[in-house]
Amino acid sequence: MRTSKHLIEQLASDLGYEYISDLHRPQLLPEIQILISSYDSQSYSLKEWKDAVQYITGSSCKLCECEEIKQYLLSLKNS
User: Is the pTM of this model over 0.70?
Assistant: First the structure.
């Protein structure tokens, strides 16, 4: 099922933030991970998952499947 919002916009919205720039805050990682765990990886495009990794971590992602990227995000540790 395809959603109407971009993954990054959906995360910000579900967390109650008006601006997606709030997702850069490292202390939000556990909350982001809880949300991501409830999302269907196929509801968002591969590009959206890669964008989310880039936006949240500041690093690019070389993985090639939505579910792999979702699991990668879930495995991150708060630094």
Answer: yes
